[in-house]
Amino acid sequence: MKDLSVLSYGVGNLRSVVRALTHVGASVTCISHPEEVANAERLVLPGVGAFRHCADALRRQNLWQPVADYLSGDRPFLGICVGMQLMLEASEEFGVHPGFATIKGRVVRLPDEVGQKIPMVGWKTIKSLNKNVIFDPAADDSFYFVHSYAAQGVDETHTLATYSYGGSQVVAAVGRDAKVGTQFHPEKSGEAGLALLERFTEL
Amino acid sequence: MKNLRFIARLDVKGEHLVKGVQLEGLRKLGRPNEFARRYYSEGIDEILYIDIVASLYERNSLLPIIERATDDIFVPITVGGGIRSLEDVRAALEVGADKVAINTAALRRPELINEVAEAFGSQCMVLGVEAKRTGPGKWECYFDNGREKSGKDILEWVKEGTERGAGEILLTSVDQEGGQKGMDTELLAAVSSAVSIPVIASGGVGAVEHISEAVETGADAIAMAHVLHYDKLSIGEAKSWACDHAVLDVRQ
Predict the structure, then answer these.
(1) Interface residues from chain A to B (CB-CB < 8 Å)
(2) B96 versus A137: which is more confidently predicted?
């Protein structure tokens, strides 16, 4: 059984993340202290709402530096939704706010596209770029997204998957080695999401 | 391609899934989570639980049901009925809900929309709206499950709700709900073009054809109750129809 730590910092639907990871066989602990982040074998960072709200919450609880330190190492990491966005250099949501800069790129508002409402709420079939085993190369999987802001300027090497949005491609997942981030919610993406979480626990 | 989501709407009274016509006259159909689990296994995109007697008990009583649902249902869950305060929202999110649908409490105190959006994010704040036609191109907002009138104009209200931070509109036509005769397409079109946020069309789907109507008038999601609970249409059939009759991004 793989040990996994989910960071609880007052943001997001923790229960669903924990339930989904437990469902795929991981041994999950909710953590909230800096030392626990330092000692985690595998770290999951959830996040919903505004980027700066999540970043502020991490800083207020003295978790920003511990997560930054964790990300400078090699241990597996999964950032979900705003948790993924925090892996980038900065976000332009409600002003400019710095991220952990694990992945080069910025978080910007989704472009206005005809027929698309913002936030983009719903299931999207992703195109995996076959860079990381968390995505099944044989499947055209759909995942659940809810976001108004997306990663941009991420280089090819670190873009794991995209989805079609109007005339453009939106970044669905990023990664560097065992540190991955998904814009979508794997814990809310049915069996495809559960399978991805299971593959993450194997990293 | 435009996205279309299919949402199963479960009206709950106590421990029972119920369904009625024109929001009156209820029949007990069974245990809500049995239906929810079945819909999940059949590919439903989201599940919406509404506590229809919340006003009677002055609170939402669905939390234990939601908690059990999130044990093995891994699609987004929205809870509505009797959500009145930030504490109610927090409690719902803590048992595993992703979004809350708020109608009455928002009409009474619109600032609540701002507060929920700021505390938990707009993505969590679904503005529930019950619309009853009052004349050509005009609808009034109702609350308390279509029983009470608010005096507010629908289009003004949904615009205000969007400005205050709502992430989605859950739009129910009081006139069409439970009738299975289709949706109020004029209402849908008016609301969809009035706001820049997603609109969930709820109420009136009785046959596959109604799905096209909803899509053509701008719905981003369709909430179905009657037609699913009484086995008149399967989720697979609904999705196939949508893909065959329009160019849409629908999860298979």
Answers:
(1) 13, 15-16, 19-20, 23, 48-50, 53, 115-125, 142, 144, 146-148, 164, 185, 187-191, 193-194
(2) B96
